[in-house]
Amino acid sequence: MQRMLIQLNEKVNSSFELRIRIGGSLYQKEQERLTGWMAYHDILYINSETPVNLAARLMYFDADNFEARTFAYESDLRYQFSIPFFSGKGLRYCLRASYRTKNRMIIKVRLSETNYLD
């Protein structure tokens, strides 16, 4: 199994950041050669002067089967982590938001969904 990942980051200003990642996998056993790839775009809004922070991800993936699956780390809620794998063909989105109240309580929500196209 071989894997690769290319990442491009662009800090638009002090609050906005854009990330583009393209990853792939190659699985070869004897005469069988299977491939998988994914491309995703992250948009982050993080500003310490406002009570709201936002993050969004849109992903497309296409993997021949489970052996050629791809992985993507996803930021999650505090004390949680997520590294889902993807096989087949599909789209995934993930939205995260946090809100800091005046009494310094932080409310966080996360919504994600995977839709298979095959």
What descriptive keywords fit this protein?
118 residues; mainly beta; 8 strands
Briefly say what this structure is.
The protein is elongated.
Structure in words:
The protein has strands at 2-11, 16-29, 32-45, 52-63, 70-71, 85-86, 88-100, 106-116. The strands form 2 sheets. A 6-stranded antiparallel sheet has the order 1-2-3-4-7-8, with no helix packed on it. Strands 5-6 form a two-stranded antiparallel sheet. It has one domain. With 118 residues, the protein is mainly beta. The chain is elongated and about 60 Å long.
As a percent range, the share of strand residues is over 45%
What's the alpha carbon Rg, rounded to whole Å? 17 Å
**What is the terminal separation in angstroms?**
24 Å
- Mean pLDDT comes to 93
- Helix/strand-derived category reads mainly beta
Sheet with most strands:
6 strands, antiparallel
| Number of self-contained structural domains | 1
Shape: elongated
Strand order of the biggest β-sheet:
1-2-3-4-7-8
Number of strands: 8
List low-confidence stretches. Answer: none
Helix content: under 10%
Order of helices and strands: EEEEEEEE
Work out the helix count: 0
Give the helix/strand layout.
Elements: E1 2-11, E2 16-29, E3 32-45, E4 52-63, E5 70-71, E6 85-86, E7 88-100, E8 106-116
Antiparallel strand pairs: 1-2, 2-3, 3-4, 4-7, 5-6, 7-8
